[in-house]
Every structure is written in structure tokens, then in C-alpha cells.
Amino acid sequence: MKVKLSLGALIGLIAVGFQWSEAQEIVRSTYTFKMVNDLPVRADVYRKAGDDIRPVILWIHGGALITGNRRGLNPTQADRYLNAGYTIVSIDYRLAPQAKLDQILEDLQDAYHWVRTEGPKLFRIDPNRVAVVGHSAGGYLTLMGGFRLNPRPRALVSFYGYGDIAGEWYSRPDPFYNRQPAVPKEEAYAVVGTSVISDYKGGDRGRFYLYTRQRGLWPIEVTGHDPDKEPRAFDRLCPIRNVTKDYPPTLLLHGDNDTDVPYEQSVLMAKELGRHSVQYEFIPMAGRGHGFDSPMWDPVVSASFERVLVFLQKQLAR
What we know:
Number of strands: 9
Strand order of the largest sheet: 1-2-3-5-4-6-7-8-9
Largest sheet: 9 strands, mixed
Helix content: 25-40%
Strand content: 15-25%
Structural class: alpha/beta
Distance between the termini: 30 Å
Radius of gyration: 19 Å
CATH topology: Rossmann fold
Number of domains: 1
Shape: globular
């Protein structure tokens, strides 16, 4: 399905308050990049009208691998990516806990393969100039892509992502989330149901996430493995354990007041990248929390995003 709209009309459908923009015509195409039994897994492609062959951003939404969908793309950020000359492919993936992490990673790999093989003819991208960009859990998947995707992406950008999913921050009860009333186990499982989904369209799945953080169960619920009993099972699931000299150039952005994903996650990832002489940049955001990049009108946030564009331009140049 192809729709031609202004960017404001297009992404404004999913972002309250975003205004119509008549500055340029944007083409949005929705594709099913894979079927899992009778479940479609889809991607939205955003590009400027025209026949130019462009580099592509594979964009991955957050939501703790439990919530979210491909429509979570910040409209102002999308606008700036498009104006910088990129095509954006925003993907869905199957969601936990019904889908486990191995299946989610399979969706990521299949999406990347689809972009590189089908993208040149479907939406005129250069398959050799692909960057992966993700936020939070999408940042984690982005970092996983640094060693799970083949051939390696040209660049990775992780907004407040994480390299370790077995550590105490995720595998033990979280003090911040335990300030809230406890979510009963029965309620937590009721809100996610039993069906595998890839496109979360509303509801209370966030309650399940809160339940896992309050009890330190996220690794078990999402991977199917217990980090205390099966520590080696997490070797292949933690980006920080898989950095080599061949890891792609990486940009990390993280607020030092993040109460969801510890700032230390990006600090440690940066240290590991440096230890292996991988080209990287780290943008610490002083006093900022999780999702710090939402208010793009903020001059500090806007300036940090400009550094993202500079990094991408450098890495995806011909």
C-alpha cells in the first residue's frame, strides 16, 4: 500500500499535536516483510518522492520488547532524517512474552535481509549503505545487530540502549519501579494474553513490564532463560560480550538520570568498544532521563540529534 502525504499528515496520525507540513511530498509504503503462520510482520517505509537511490535507516522501536510498534517514530526526527537524504524503514517485530528473544532477533535479521534484497527495487535504497537506529529496547536490538546482522551495517545508533540483559539491573527487583504498587501476577499475565502479536495497538501491556521489573523477571520472561541458573545462555544475547574489532561504528546517546535503563549501560558499552578499537562516539546527556529526545524543540536535544546526523553522514557517505 502506498500513500502520498505531507510528512505532518503522515506521522501526525501517530503523534498528538504534530502539524501538517506542505514543504515536501513524502511517500509512505507499508509492506509485510514476513509471515509467521497467519501473523504478518510489517514495515513502514518513508521516503521523499523521486527516483534517487538513497541510503537507508532501519529504525527499531522501543517498549522493552513487550510493547510498541513501528509507528513510534518521532515525527520531527523522521523529518530531519528525510531532509538529510535518508529513506527510513520502521519495523515491527514479534513481542514478548509470547515471542521469546530468539524469535525477535530472527525478525530483526529477516527485516534486514528484506531491506537489503528487496529494498533496491521496492523503494530505491542502496543496500550497501544501511544504518540501524533504535531507542531503548530498540537500542538493544541495534547493538545486537552489530554482530548478528550479516553483512554488518555501516553504522549503529543506540538511544539509551543496553548491552547487558543478564545483569542485576534487569534480573533483580528494581527499587525505582517498586515505588509503585505491586502488579499481581494474575493481572500481569491477563493483560498480555496468549496470542503472539507484532503490532501493539493499545492496552495495558506496560503493566506486564512493570511486573517483570518489580520482581526482577524480565530476562526470564523475555528470553526463557534464568541468568542465575543458565548464565552462559546469555553470552550470545548480550552485545557487550560480543564486541570485536569488526563491530560497526557506533554512536551511543544516554541520559545520566535515566531511571529505566541505567546510564552505566552505555558507559560500559563505550568502554568495550574502545577496548576493541571500534570507532565510536558517546553523547552523555547531563540531567536527562529515559526518552530524553522526545522534546525536539529543546535546543540541547536538537543539538544532540544534529550530532546523530553528522555521524550518519560520515559513516554512510559513498
